[in-house]
Please model this.
Amino acid sequence: MENDLQAIVSQAEASQATISNRSDWDQAKAVILGPKGSLTQASKLIGKLPREEKPAFGQALNQAKKQVEALFANSLSRIEEQADLIALGKPYDPTLPAVPNRSASLHPLSATRRKVVAIFRKLGFTVTEATEAETEWFCFDALNTPEDHPARDEQDTLFFSPDSKWANVSKKAKEAHLLRTHTSSVQIRTMLREKPPLRVIAPGRCFRRDTVDATHSANFHQLEGLCVDRGVTLLDLKGVLDHFLKEMFGTKVQTRLRPSFFPFTEPSFEVDLKAPNLGKLSDKWIEIMGCGLVDPEVLKLVNLDPDEWSGFAFGVGIERITMILHGIDDIRHFYQNDQRFLSQFSGSL
Model:
């Protein structure tokens, strides 16, 4: 028996001279180590041996198998190296520089979102999210937005088609479904689900039927914040936003509130900033976000007593912050996946 095993090892050694490619290697290996190979068949004989001969044969079988496997491992390494040299077209030059070890990095929008979230978490805000497909009630009605508001025009908003599974109720019933135009709808869901006092931020993707250009996109990202408690005032809102903008743009940033209008806040403001470290935008007032005190009508719509509770809300675009921070002049760069553009932000923020 042991002579037969040695013959199989010799057969494996002899086969190595005929192996020149992977196909030859697979075929030669199958002859010896395959299901019907000579070594596999020899291993089946151990059951027919007397008990006293089995240990010696098993030891010899294992030794033969190790030798054969080592032979085929070496020959596989040899033919793979030859294949690599052929692919290179010339012998390997060990003096060539190493291939760069590229590591992944965050997308600039993801990096901005993480930093914004981190700032508000230090102020006691928690992150909340909801579905991107919304009903008109959560997206508009509950936010005190009247039916004749331009945002509810089908030319401005991505409503689902009447035969869609999302639009199984008529629009007149105020249950038509759409892709949310802002993450303010998350604030409504939060106030219906949780009782105040509460402080939440709602980062997420939004959609509008905008014509894509350097400053507009049908898909964009927002982060909205909400604070509801007893005795919340405009001073609280200004303090939170001042802290956020100084953390984001530097301690030398200046801010101001400019009166504006939003259906869900009263009074409402646009927030402008001016900072000396923003390149060509330095020392210019830049509109950055909207905010205001929560309209009492909105509190009533979520079953909160405006005589007991008050709050503030704000919303900011993730793309807008990133563009200002890095001097980016075209929003389309964020979605084109151009490695030359994205690689500039590795390690930023």
Summary: Confidence is low (pLDDT under 50) at residues 168-174. The chain is about 40% helix and 20% strand.
